[in-house]
Write a structure and sequence with these properties.
Blueprint (H helix, E strand, L loop, with lengths): L40 H7 L4 H18 L2 E3 L8 E3 L2 E8 L1 H25 L4 H4 L5 H5 L21 E8 L5 E7 L6 H14 L1 H5 L9 H11 L10 E4 L8 H11 L2 E3 L4 E4 L2 E6 L2 E5 L1 E4 L22 H6 L4 E3 L10 H4 L2 H9 L11 E2 L3 H9 L4 E5 L8 E3 L5 H13 L4 E5 L5 E5 L6 E9 L1 E4 L3 E3 L4 E5 L13 E8 L5
Parallel strand pairs: 3-22, 6-7, 6-11, 11-12
Antiparallel strand pairs: 1-2, 4-5, 4-19, 8-9, 9-10, 13-16, 14-15, 14-16, 17-18, 18-21, 19-20, 21-22
Helix pairs in contact: 2-6, 3-12
Length: about 500
């Protein structure tokens, strides 16, 4: 993978990209022949008119604006301080209309099937009885909530907000890497990145035919209101946060402000007679819908973790009684389980009688004897992931790991096979990214997290969060592991 080829014909590229190399990867901006892909031509034509000094000034202006507005994320256990600006690269990822239509169709199909699956496993469990998914995989899932068997959830919707991670392989095919069906984060950066780039390149943006994303907060509020308990005409909605030390706290405050709803911590809520109330200066006010950014375990110390100081005693009882609605529902973490990911193509076929529009990455289950044997013998070729870790943690990048690291993972897999999956190392697509004065614009690996809202209708804001691995050669895009973000532009059909 180390060989690279200059992006010729260089004459077609503006000065900043003259030395850009595509490498042996799928490059989002340039074709295999080095020519600019059609949907990037408008941007490059105008971007080429921005001189180095002007570009540096624009970068500094964006960083300063992010710092002033508190567009940050928290890093736990970091010696350099906890709060950081989320690194933002000014070269946008551009998606033509036809590709977006394909992605959108695949994402709608996926969230529809996952909601049907969750309803089934918490009620009739037909998919298990029919033998489509072995029972032990569901029952042993860390986030399967037996306490929620046969509980009716409002409008039968379990996942209201989903962030599905999508990658592109070396042939340019889109693949689903994982579904985030509990408390997906990152959409605030999508909205702030858009504001920043519109301000920075207004002339490029206005003539570029880029679809808007600004309506996300209004669409999210509609979904939350749609899920209100029966008989509540004008529901009060609140966002429940673990508090300012959470890594996504900026996003919690941002979305609450955008939707015009209260942001609360567990101590701000109280349950009386199965109804939830918010403490205010005017006394207790009823709350009907809670957009919770707290995992199940911490929601209610009387049902889940008894040591949780973040939750609300009695909240689960109020939810069971239908007096308050939660988004996302309790128990959606089963759909996050990386072992369950393996079965999503079967889930789509079972409930919708369709083939997946967006395929999975090929996956091996360590709890299947043949797969386990293959994984053990090929750790130097595979990416191994723990079933319930996130943020790039609990993962072995086999080809880049030391022998000692591979040996440690071999021991872990043999001790707890249910907890591990293996996947081939996918050469993620690359995108031009500014990498400092010494390197200039160079290729860096990216993924895409679109945000899907599932309410009265399914809404996906065009694009999503493009995350970029800023370290040279790295395939890990997570912010906690040194990643940054880019704007994602979805073009109208005539551009």
């Amino acid at each position: 993978m180390s060989s690279s080829k200059p992006a010729s014909p260089a004459a077609a590229l503006p000065e900043p990209f003259r030395n850009y190399e595509t490498g042996n990867f799928y490059d989002e901006m340039l074709g295999p022949d080095g020519r600019v892909r059609p949907h990037y031509q408008h941007f490059l034509k105008h971007f080429g008119e921005v001189g180095p000094e002007d570009f540096a000034a624009k970068r500094n202006a964006v960083d300063l604006a992010f710092l002033r507005q508190g567009v940050t994320f928290n890093v736990y256990g970091d010696s350099q301080g906890t709060e950081r600006i989320f690194p933002f690269d000014l070269v946008p990822r551009i998606i033509p209309a036809s590709e977006w239509e394909h992605l959108e169709a695949g994402l709608v199909q996926r969230i529809t099937a996952l909601n049907l699956f969750l309803h089934d496993i918490y009620h009739e469990q037909n998919i298990i009885k029919d033998g489509t998914i072995p029972a032990h995989y569901v029952m042993s899932a860390k986030h399967f909530r037996r306490e929620f068997m046969h509980v009716k959830v409002p409008r039968d919707i379990y996942i209201h907000i989903c962030g599905t991670d999508i990658i592109r392989d070396d042939k340019g095919q889109y693949l689903v890497l994982e579904d985030n069906a509990r408390c997906p984060s990152g959409v605030s950066y999508v909205l702030e990145n858009r504001r920043a780039l519109k301000r920075t390149f207004p002339e490029i943006f206005e003539s570029g035919g880029v679809r808007p994303v600004e309506n996300y907060s209004q669409e999210l509020l509609k979904v939350l209101q749609h899920t209100a308990p029966a008989g509540v005409a004008e529901p009060t909605v609140a966002l429940l946060t673990p508090g300012p030390y959470n890594s996504a706290y900026f996003e919690h405050t941002y979305l609450a402000r955008q939707m015009g709803i209260e942001i609360v911590e567990g101590r701000d809520l109280v349950v009386r007679d199965q109804h939830v109330y918010m403490r205010t200066t005017k006394g207790l006010q009823p709350v009907h819908v809670i957009y919770r950014r707290i995992d199940d375990d911490f929601l209610d110390p009387t049902v889940f973790r008894r040591d949780s100081a973040l939750g609300v005693p009695g909240l689960v009882n109020a939810y069971r009684a239908g007096k308050v609605s939660l988004a996302n529902s309790i128990g959606t973490g089963v759909a996050d389980d990386k072992v369950m990911y393996y079965f999503v193509p079967r889930i789509i076929k079972y409930y919708l009688d369709q083939d997946p529009i967006l395929p999975n990455v090929p996956t091996y289950l360590a709890s299947e004897e043949a797969d386990k044997q293959y994984m053990i013998e090929n750790l130097d070729k595979l990416v191994v992931k723990a079933a319930n870790e996130a943020g790039g943690y609990g993962m072995l990048m086999g080809p880049h790991a030391t022998q000692a690291e591979r040996d440690e993972f071999r021991t872990r897999i043999l001790a707890d096979p249910r907890n591990y999956i293996g996947q081939p190392m996918i050469s993620l697509s690359r995108h031009p990214t500014y990498c400092g004065e010494a390197e200039g614009f160079a290729g860096r690996h990216i993924d895409l997290r679109p945000f899907i809202l599932y309410g009265e209708k399914t809404v996906i804001i065009p694009g999503g969060l493009t995350r970029v691995a800023l370290r040279k050669g790295s395939l890990v895009v997570n912010s906690s592991q040194g990643g940054g973000s880019k704007e994602s532009w979805v073009l109208y059909g005539n551009h």
